[in-house]
Amino acid sequence: MNPNIFDETHPLEEVLVWGEPGIEALLGQLLPKSKSLFFSYYEVLEARREFRHMQTLIEQEGIRFTRAKDAFASSLEKRKFPNEPRSIQELESALLERAGEYYETYRDHKTRDFAHEGIHGNIDEVYVQIQKDIKHILKEDVQFYGEAAAIRLNHWLCLTHELPLANIFYGRDQSQTMADKVMLSALKWGIRKPEVGTFKEALTELGYADSLVEIENGTIEGGDIAILGDTCYIGVGARTNMRAVKNLCRKIGVYLEGRGIQIVAVVNKRHVDEASTYGAPTDEHMRIMHLDMFWIPLTPDLVMAYGHELDQREIIRVSRNMDIMVVEELGGFREFLSEKGIEILEVDEQEQKNFATNLLNLGNKTVIVALSTNTRVIQELEKRGFRVLSAELNKLVNGYGAVHCLTAPVRRGMGDTTPTHRVISKTG
User: Fold this and answer.
1) Last residue of a domain, which of 158, 191, 206?
2) Model-level pTM greater than 0.70?
3) Buried (b) or exposed (e) across 256-277, using 16+ Cβ within 10 A?
């Protein structure tokens, strides 16, 4: 397989995803948000339908849709796990037992989470529904994968780690294609760390083994990385840190520079300081966890961004001179973009909270947005000649992620790099 991403705005040819959320996400609903990293609660069966609708939108555009979940299930045929359930009935019993353990342990904590988030629900009723949904999804998995593969897949995702891999369906964070390399991430929070090894197996099964680059120092997540023009932008703040940016630069910095691409860190210094000491993410950290939560390229000279966060960020260029890392402070993010002649279509605070920037750019001025409720943003895009498709991810966004978080492009064509006619849009 040949990964190929030289610009976030080039025509999308193939996208890697994990797949729809499964029983692991159901179990995550019973954990407090400080552990699950979910907003609080969402209906997983409906989220599965939303994911499949998004898949249909992408495939209808002639884009190859590759599911890491299916590749990983295939790779499990070659492995044998200790204490693996011997039947689907034994697996179901183990899953229901684990759900009961989480319910009993975190019931009071979840009740407080619901009250804090203004959710008019009852954790007891949620638990009863989750028990039913576990059985429903397990039947679907058996029909799709076969009994043996369904057992191993759900055993791995739900029972072999301290916590279920409840966030794994946000399939951009675990890896990122840069030029013709695929970087394997180093995720920050404990519940997510096992996802990288899982994706590594899936990517190897898909034929990407020779393209993989692994990060050994620091933390870095795929949602913090985007190439636009001659620059690879890497968000540094709540999830990604400078140690990992420097490690990445040591590994492929010269390689990228040889292709005309510099590496810059887009740094929120306050979030960096907070992330190094906090034992759980704050609401603010979750809302602005990655670069793609507040900034996204649209064309070679147009980006969409949440202006308030844009002005909190500073640009630091990271390069390598022999064995010495060179770090240069280049000023504010907004000014850096302006000097490059890049226009900013600004979104306001509510639009950012509604995941306006977390869209998938298909290239050729076509985008898939998460929600149709951001009507002003959609109108602004359409004024500029964009075709806007809506995935309507009303449930999936309650995991603090949207279309961009769910998808990891692995191949884009070269596309039209002709600058667009610039029109400044002010928030309001």
Assistant:
1) 158
2) yes
3) bbeeebbbbbbbbeebbebbee
